[in-house]
Design brief:
Blueprint lengths: L1 H30 L2 E4 L3 E8 L11 H21 L6 H24 L2 E7 L9 H19 L11
Antiparallel strand pairs: 1-2, 2-3
C-alpha cells in the first residue's frame, strides 16, 4: 500500500511541475522576467535543451535512456526489495522519480525542458519545480544513506 502512496506522491510532483510550466508559458513567456521575491527569486522563461548548466545539450535520447534505466531499477528494487532502502529513502526516490518524470515529459513532448525559477541573490542556472524535487530528494537520500542507514553499506558475505 505504501508504494501506491509513493506513486501518488510522484504523480503529484509531476502535476505540480507541469502546472507551473503551463503557467510559465502562458504568462511569463510573453512578458519576460517577473519579480517574485525582489532580490531573492524571480520568474524567467527558459527553454533548456540540456541538463544542469546546459550540459549534454540536445541529447534527448540520452535522457530518455537514463530515465528508462532508472524506471526499470526502481520497479525491480521496489518489487523485489533487493537493496536495503528504508521507507524514508524510498520516499526520496519517489521524489527524484517524480521530478525526473516531469522533465522527461517536457523533453519528449517539446524537445526541451521549461525552466522558470531564477535566483537573484546568486548566479545560478534557471531551474523548475521538478529540479527542486530531484535535488532535494538526492540530497536527503545521500544524507540518510551516509548518516542513518549503516545497514545499507554492510557487505553481506556468506
Amino acid at each position: 500500500m505504501q508504494y501506491l502512496f509513493m506513486a501518488l506522491f510522484a504523480g503529484l510532483i509531476v502535476a505540480a511541475d507541469q502546472f507551473t510550466k503551463y503557467l510559465t508559458v502562458a504568462n511569463i513567456a510573453l512578458h519576460g522576467h517577473r519579480d517574485f521575491l525582489p532580490g531573492i527569486l524571480g520568474f524567467t522563461y527558459v527553454r533548456n535543451t540540456g541538463a544542469a548548466w546546459s550540459s549534454f545539450e540536445g541529447m534527448i535520447w540520452l535522457f530518455v535512456l537514463i530515465f528508462a534505466v532508472l524506471t526499470v531499477a526502481i520497479i525491480w528494487e521496489f518489487s523485489k526489495k533487493r537493496m536495503g532502502f528504508t521507507t524514508f529513502e524510498r520516499w526520496c526516490i519517489a521524489a527524484i522519480y517524480g521530478g525526473g518524470l516531469g522533465n522527461i515529459i517536457d523533453r519528449i513532448r517539446l524537445g526541451y525542458v521549461v525552466d522558470m525559477l531564477q535566483t537573484e541573490f546568486m548566479k545560478f542556472p534557471v531551474f523548475n519545480v521538478a529540479d527542486c524535487f530531484i535535488t532535494c530528494g538526492c540530497i536527503l537520500l545521500m544524507i540518510h544513506l551516509v548518516f542513518f542507514n549503516k545497514e545499507f553499506w554492510k557487505d553481506e558475505k556468506k
